[in-house]
């Protein structure tokens, strides 16, 4: 409804409004600054002569300029560009379980591999009196605070098998 009403007002007396706009005088453009004209060079040939003339005094001064540059001494890289570690990390052999082929062989001190993490979590879950946080920290070269956090926040999954008669009930 509103669109129809708006269209009526838009199309009302369109021809006379268009003729009125066309018959108006065109506005005169603002005057341009004299230095913005490109044809100024054509009016003054002496300016073009100054542009293309060589100045001997400036040319001799330019010839007197001498720039001397030196490259920094080239450093020879030994060993075909291999980067050696700045600090040697102490490594320890891993305590490999039944997944020894899948695990890494050496681990930096203060870290454990995934297989070791699963093993120590399972050992602590099965025998918490034997595998205490202190014993795990000594055994795997870890900090006690990190071992306590590991035992608190990570719990291994427990596999539960249901007898066949309870499977039918489910």
Automatic annotation (TrEMBL):
A GO biological process held by the record: mitochondrial respiratory chain complex I assembly
Annotated segments matching region Disordered: 17-44
Basic and acidic residues biased stretches: 17-27
Signal peptide start-end: none
Alphabetized InterPro entries for the sequence: NDUFAF4
This protein's GO CC annotations: mitochondrion
Membership in a protein family: Belongs to the NDUFAF4 family.
PANTHER family (UniProt xref): NADH DEHYDROGENASE [UBIQUINONE] 1 ALPHA SUBCOMPLEX ASSEMBLY FACTOR 4 (PTHR13338:SF4), UPF0240 PROTEIN (PTHR13338)
Known partners and oligomeric status: Binds calmodulin. Interacts with NDUFAF3.
Protein name: NADH dehydrogenase [ubiquinone] 1 alpha subcomplex assembly factor 4
Gene from which the chain derives: Ndufaf4
